[in-house]
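dude i think i finally got it to work??
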Amino acid sequence: MGFDIEMKFSAPVAAAIFSAALALPAASAPASPAETFPGAPGVITLSGKCAKLVVAKFDATKGCKNELASVTLANGLVTFIFTSDGKALGFQGDGSGIKPASNGNARLPLSLVTTGVGNKMTGEVKVAGFCTFGNPYAGKPIAIECTAESKDSSFTGSFRTGGKLVKKGK
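look at this
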């Protein structure tokens, strides 16, 4: 897959994010109506359909996995991680910046896109953009749509859930 974009290789936080995403327990419990998304620190895995994953001019949608990880760190950083053909693309922003958007959705401003292979996130690039998303705890299908641009490239990820309960991890 073509995530071959020049990036800085100083991503210890991104490595911790992706490692946490791979250590997900399979526990799934009914959500209380008060639960919010992305929520408290931890990892949430959503199942559904990866509708689009594009890095620059490379369309990675065909190999895109039908799971999306949402990782929230204790410092408030939120990352939505898409995977395709063993490679990962994370859209990251400060969760304190989440604001309401149209149709009951929320919007996360993005500051970084991280990339990796397997369980190691080794690349990052500064970006400007947003992820718009609904609350999967509402029990209905939602969309998570991310678009970001750096000075040299653009990134797009779109994921639609099936409305089932999510898997949560710590």
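The CA atoms of residues 51 and 158 lie 5 Å apart.
im so relieved honestly
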